[in-house]
Structures are given as structure tokens and as C-alpha cells.
Amino acid sequence: MKKEHNITLKGISASSGIVIGKVFLLKNDDFMPTEEIYIPQSERAKEVLRFQEAIKNARAEMQELRSKINRTLGANYAKIAEVHFLMLEDPLMTQKVLEMINSGSKAEYAVDKFTKDIVKTLEVESDEYFRERVADIKEVSKKIIDNLIGRKDRKVLLENIGENKIVVAHTLSPAETVVMKEKFVLGFVTDMGGRTSHTAIVANGLGIPAVVGLTSITSNVEPNEEIILDGNAGLVILNPDKEVIEKYRQEIKNLDKATEELDKIKNMSATTVDGHNVEILANIENPNETNLVLSMHAAGIGLYRTEFIYFNRSDIPSENVHYEAYVKVVESMNGLPTVIRTLDLGGDKLTESDVLHLEKEKNPFMGLRAIRLCLKYPRIFIDQLRGILRASAKGKINLLYPMVSCVDELDAANEVLEKVKTDLRKENIPFDEDIKVGIMIEVPSAALISDILAKKVDFFSIGTNDLIQYSMAADRVNENVAHLYNPLHPAVLRLLKMIIDNGHKAGIKVAMCGEMAGSPFYTPILLGLGLDEFSVSIVQIPRIKKIIRSVNMEEMKKLSDEVLKCDDSSQIEQILKGIKFSEDIN
Ligand code: PEP
Ligand code: MG
Asked: Among 344, 496, 499, 512, which is best to mutate for testing ligand 1, by the most ligand atoms less than 8 A from CB?
């Protein structure tokens, strides 16, 4: 049936910009063959061989994984791989699958059927141990089926797109998004996801438009069909007609012109009309981004998300891998400061490809993430701290701990840091003895004790991406609760005010590196609340600068006082929409 023209799907704008292009449909990894195909007697021996070959390959893959974990994390952590390995060896599975093949089933169908039957039995078990094995069984079964159908890793597919395409997927992990970085991807759209998911943040860093949370776009498009991706409005238009394409082409031209205009203010200072100065810095995920940072005249790097070093590699990065990445960054920053955040793995930054192979948690965002993970596995933390400290002898580095939720955690992290410093001194390895140490304020408990924490650190950096999700109890990657994820909720604004005031009372600077800092709509209120530094995705730097240069600080202070008295976010939004800028900001 012919598709109607201009079917418009509304999602969540994750990264701005507009593109028109052809669809690259990235299939789900969890597809399983459900169709039963009858295999004649004469071909069954061949089918048995295919199955045995698949088991052999899956076994080799698991063996490699097991020894890798053994090597890097120790025998205790190889437990999960061990369980999978045992399942592959299970004679019951082999026997049942072979029986089915010998009565005419295709191997992949037989493996899938066996898995479903056993999962059905286990899911109703009262013993939790058995219920928990369901995920393991599914994973092992998927590995065998991957081998049977020759399914390629999604990353391999993404790396080989080869032509300018718009990637359409049910969901994309941050690690997959990083792979797209060097390639010719025009933009991407996903069924799932929220505005501050790390997948969206990477898209922002790449400067490619993205729309997430479209619910069912993957079932509404065909590979290679032409679509329009409007990252500004959070829209995707299917089967656009000539007029709509023309309208969008014009819009793209206007956007290009606006970008040229912004280019002109790149090297000007971030100073308000009445002479108040703030700093604008850049967020990076990759050491190769420093050229772009410098070209935008950023005052430095306000957040280097070092966990990206862990993505798409098969071993845990050594001290030297860390060191080399950080030296590369600081040496190219020509003396400008770089805030290096220690590892923040966990939450939505833990995918099947991550090298730690930690057990899946029920609530990853509330679980073993960031500083919690580093304190539990000190070896990982120490290697990173040594890398950072050694690099601090080569350029200006400030150290930042993520996800701190109480004083004890900060003290424990500092204890490790002091030990690392002592070791380096003993080894005569130079580092910056005055390295500044700050914490992210991104958990409500930390915000509420920010008066205490401020006395123990050199600076704060507010992580609104997490602060909002934890304050509102609204998962930042879940499109179903995106309406609750609101930076203008009075509770969020009160927390921001509290953090900034407490920081200033203790005489320390307060920065913000969450996405709220990079969204021009919130710039006036953040200025009014007294924020000292905005650390934003590189492409947003001139836009934020333009807003700062168009407002009066005294007026913004009054505006923030007024806003803090409001009962709800819609009232606040109206006030922000009514701001008069000294020049046209569009
Ligand atoms: C934040 O939470 O606002 C932040 C900057 O950290 P991340 O997005 O990496 O969690
Ligand atoms: Mg965070």
C-alpha cells in the first residue's frame, strides 16, 4: 500500500538541526527466528553440523571472554561468563535441540524453541536463583543463534554505513553512538530515549540532529526511504512531498545563515550588557575534540567524560592509556584548564560491550555508578588517578568526582587520591601539587548538604542531567516520563539556588555542566541565579554567548527572584518567554 505524504511523528528533540536523507534501519539485536521451516531428511545431517559449529564458535567466544575477565578483574568476576559457559555445555540442551533437528526443525528455530520452553518453566519458579538464570539462558541462546544466522555486531554495521544516512533504531547505546562519530551519519532517530540520555549528549557533541522517544518509528519506515529529521522541533516527517521538502530546504539555508552570524561573536567575551563576566567552557567525550573547542574560543574544558575511554575496547584501560588520553587533551589546550571527571560508568553508560562485565542491576541509575563503582574497585580508580596526576604535570587539570552523595564518599575518594600522590612522590614522578578537586552536585542529598561539601572542595559543577532525574524520580532515558523531567520545576530551581549560594558563601566557584547549561532558553535564569561557569556541548558555545551578551545581569537577578516565587513551571516558562533581549537573538 502506498504511504501517505507528510506523515509527521512527534518525539523529543535530542540535538538540534535539520536534515533530509535516506533511512538506515538498524535492526534490533534481540530478533529471534520464529518461523518454523521444515528440513527434509536428506539435509538434516548438514543442519546438525551447522548447530555443532555454532556451539563450537559460541564456546570459543565465551572462553575468550572468560579469560579476559579473569585477566583484568580476577577470577571472582569471571562468574557470569562461567555460568554461560556451563549452559553451553549442558547435555540436556544439546540433546533436545538435536532431537528437534532430527525431526525436521531448522537449528535456529530449535534453539529458540528450547529456550522459550525452558524460560517459561523458570519464570514461574518460586526460587529466585532459577528466575535469575532466565537472562543468562536468553543470552547464551542469542549467542548460538547469532552464530547460526551470521548476525553481525550492530557496531560493525554502523561503522560500515558508508553513505550519508539517517540512522533509525529502536534504541542506541552511547557506545554505539560513539562509533558513528567518524562516519557519515546525517542524524539519528530512535523509538526510545530522553533528551539527556548519553546517546543524545553524544549527538549534541557531534553536532548532528537527533530525535528520540518516537515510540514506533522503526516499524513505520523502510530502509532507504527518504525522511526529514527536524531536531529543532523534535519531528520526523515520512514520505515528504515536494513542497514540504522545499520548505525544509529553505529552513536549512536560514539555519546556515544564523550559524554564520554566530561565528562573528565567537571570539568575543561572555559579558552581559552591564559588564558582568561569566566563563563558557566545553564538554567533551573524546580527546580529538580539542581543536573544535579551541575554534569556538571556549575558556577551557569544563567536563571531560572519561568513561568514554572504556567504550568499544576489549580490555580495561591501563594507567598509560589514561595518561596518554589526558596528555593529548591538556597539551593541545595551550594552558587553558581542563576539568577531568573520574570514571562515571553505570546508568545508561553500561552496555554489553563494556569491559567491566558487571552484573546487570535492577536499577542501574540508582546502583553501582560513578564514584561508587570506583570506590568498590580501587584498582580501576587508582590507575585513572595516576594517569590524571601524571598528566597534570603537562597542563592545567582540575579533578572532578561524579555522583558524590555524602561526605564519606568524598573523604574516601580523597583518601585514595592522597595515597596515589604519596606513591608518585616516592617514585619521583612529577604532578601538580596544587591540583584543584571539585565534585559534581547531581544527587539531591549532595545539593541539600552543599554548605558542608563546599567547605571541603575547590569547586562545584552542577550536573542537572542527573540532578533533575533524581529530584523528580524521572528516568532521564525514559520517554514515558519525559514530561516530568523539567529543569524549570520549582524544586529544581530551589536546589540550584541553594547550591550556588552555598558555593559562594564558602568562596568557591559554581559551574554547571549538565545539558541545562547548554540550552539558550535557560541561560537568563542561570545567570540570574549567579552561576559562574557554563560548560556546554561545543556547538552550543556561541549561542549561549549570544544570549549572555544580550541581557542585563541586574535584570536577570530580579527575574530569578521573581521566578523563585512561582508555584509551577508553566508560570516560570511564561516569564522566561517574555524576556526582552537587547538584540535579536534568533
Ligand atoms: C549531569 O548529570 O548533568 C552530567 C553532566 O553528567 P552525565 O550527563 O555524564 O551524567
Ligand atoms: Mg551525571
From this structure: 344
Q: How confident is the chain (586 residues) per 10-residue block, as mean pLDDT? A: 86 94 82 69 92 89 72 61 75 90 90 87 73 76 83 75 88 82 82 89 88 92 94 96 97 93 92 96 94 96 94 84 97 97 88 65 90 94 98 98 98 98 98 98 98 98 98 94 96 98 98 97 98 96 96 97 97 94 66
Question: Which among 422, 428, 423, 436 has a CA at the least distance from the CA of 392?
Answer: 436
Neighbours of ion ligand 2 (CB under 5 A): 442, 463, 466
In ligand 1, the atom with minimum distance to the C-alpha of 442 is: 2
Alpha helices by DSSP H, 229-361: 242-263, 290-295, 319-332
pTM above 0.70, yes or no: yes
The CATH code belonging to domain 261-274+451-532+553-586 is 3.20.20.60
Nearest ligand for residue 348 CA: 1
Ligand nearest to the CA of 341: 1
Q: How many CA atoms lie within 13 A of 205 on its CB side?
A: 29
What lines the ligand 1 site, CB under 6 Å?
A: 201, 303, 305, 344, 442, 463-466, 513-514
From the CA of 463, give the closest atom in ligand 1.
Answer: 3
pLDDT at 468: 98
Give the catalytic positions in this structure.
Answer: 198, 513
Backbone angles phi, psi at 333, to 5 degrees: -85, 5
- The span from the CA of 229 to the CA of 143, in Å, is 34
Contacts of 181 (CB under 8 A, 6+ apart): 202, 206, 286
Strands 185-190, 279-284: pairing kind: unpaired
Report how far ligand 1's centroid is from the alpha carbon of 228 (Å): 29
Cα 171 to Cα 28, 62, 218, 364: the distances in Å are 8, 25, 10, 17
**In the chain, where are the structural domains located?**
7-29+155-241, 41-149, 261-274+451-532+553-586
Centre of ligand 1 from the C-alpha of residue 368, in Å: 16
| 123 alpha carbon – ligand 1 mean position (Å) | 36
CA 92 to centroid of ligand 1, rounded, Å: 47
- Give the pLDDT of residue 32: 57
| The pLDDT of residue 183 | 64
Q: Domain 7-29+155-241 class?
A: alpha beta
With the most atoms of ligand 1 within 8 angstroms of its CB, the residue from 513, 516, 536, 540 to mutate is 513
pLDDT for position 159: 77
**What is the residue whose three cell numbers read 561565528?**
263
Question: Which amino acid is residue 560, in one-letter code?
Answer: S
**Which residue is it, cell 534504541?**
171
Indicate the class that CATH gives domain 41-149.
mainly alpha
Pocket test for ligand 1, best of 440, 499, 540 (most atoms within 8 A of CB): 440
Helix, coil or strand: residue 383: helix
Cell 545508561, residue?
Answer: 348
Instruction: Give SS3 for 302.
Output: strand
| DSSP three-state, residue 274 | coil
- Rounded (5°) CA angle 443-447-453: 110
Distance 344 CA to ligand 1 centre (A): 9
User: Which residue's alpha carbon is at the smallest distance from atom 6 of ligand 1?
Assistant: 463
